Amino acid sequence: MAATGWSDLPPELLTDIAGAITELADIARFRSVCSSWRAAAADAAAAPPPQPPWLLLPSSPSRLFFSPRENRIYPDVRLPAPAADGHHRRRRLYASPHGWTLAVDPTDLAASLFHPFTGASRPLPPLPPFFAETDDLAWDWSPLGVMASCGEGLLFCAADPPAAYWAPIPALADCNASSINYAGGEFFVFEEDVCRTTIVDAATLAVAAVIPAPAVELPSEARVVVAGDELFLLVKSKWVYLFGDDVDFSKAFRVNHRSVDPAWQELAGIGDRALFVDSLHGFAVQTAGFANLESNTIYSVSSREVNNNRRPTTVKYSVSAFNLETRSSKKFGCRLNRLEMAMRGESASWIIPSLNEG
Predict the structure, then answer these.
(1) CA distance 153 to 53
(2) Mutual orientation of helices 11-19 and 24-31 as an angle, nearest 10°?
(3) Pairing of strands 111-114, 101-104
(4) In the chain, which residues have pLDDT < 50?
């Protein structure tokens, strides 16, 4: 009997086609066609080819994604949309490297988790009122729940069973968190003002270790990167601005956070890896197989307001690649450099494309 539509194509043919797709966004689009196409792409979705990070850009009225490997900007990833909740236009999205984003409505602090590559969403309790007093936000996702902070103290919202409210973590009541990273069953809470990292067990929320700052003058900016048993600390000296735009970080340090007495040591290189940092998170990626990603390099994103007398204010985003061997920075040549976008409340953040919701 002749096929009557795309959904009637032979399953073995669909499976072969899905298995040949290399870009995760294309796998997601393939799965969204219909139930038979989704079933045929099960293996491809379960084990897609390794994906380099994308940049989630807080453009208006809709979000954009920038793929450095493809040098491509996706104005509409065309993935399943979240359920209509009346707030989707106002939500601010804060990406996690693990594939989920934290969606927050600044008008009433309604919160949810949203997966931009599958369209899945999970409700969260509204954030407490004091989150409206600042634009600062640190957060990350774990299978056990979400940790968040807007400065002093940290809150946790358990995932199983779903909690009805955000609970304070007493052991971290005085912690001035600037970023939170989750990896390997632990949260890594970083305090930029004192360059201190507190490691928290994700299951018990007990403090597992505290790693103080290295012997260095407290910097004007600092970022922490989590990479397995290693932590990297990237600092920008208060005097680095005298050297112009070709220096991103004045010093870099490394520590094995699982050692008996962890102590920072100055870093010379990271081998065949690249570090990706933004104001929310820091993580490492193996560069093998990704042609235009450079090893031993730190990728960061910055924004610059454009003075064109427009309302709303517009910004330009750029990606910098800082080589740890030469200690010099260059702007990543790409289409992103030519775009002007309406400014929103959140900042750009890295995300690793994934169809895994676990």
Answers:
(1) 30
(2) 160
(3) antiparallel
(4) 1, 78-88, 240-247
Specify the 3-state DSSP secondary structure of 12: helix
- Dist. CA 80–CA 68, nearest whole Å: 23
Per-residue pLDDT tens over the stretch 122-139: 999 999 999 988 888 999
- SS3 of 200, please? strand
CA distance 337 to 199: 37
Burial (CB count within 10 angstroms: exposed 0-12, middle 13-18, buried 19+), residue 309: exposed
Closest CA relative to residue 353, chosen from 305, 285, 293, 299:
285
Beta bridge partners of 305: 315
- For residue 301, give the 3-state DSSP assignment: strand
The helix/strand/coil state of 26 is: helix
This prediction has a pTM of 0.85
Cross-strand bridge partners of residue 297:
274, 323
* Residue 296 neighbours by CB under 8 Å, 6+ apart: 269, 270, 271, 272, 273, 274, 323, 324, 325
Q: At 71, is the secondary structure helix, strand, or coil?
A: coil
pLDDT of residue 4: 61
Cα-based angle 131, 134, 136 (whole degrees, multiple of 5): 90
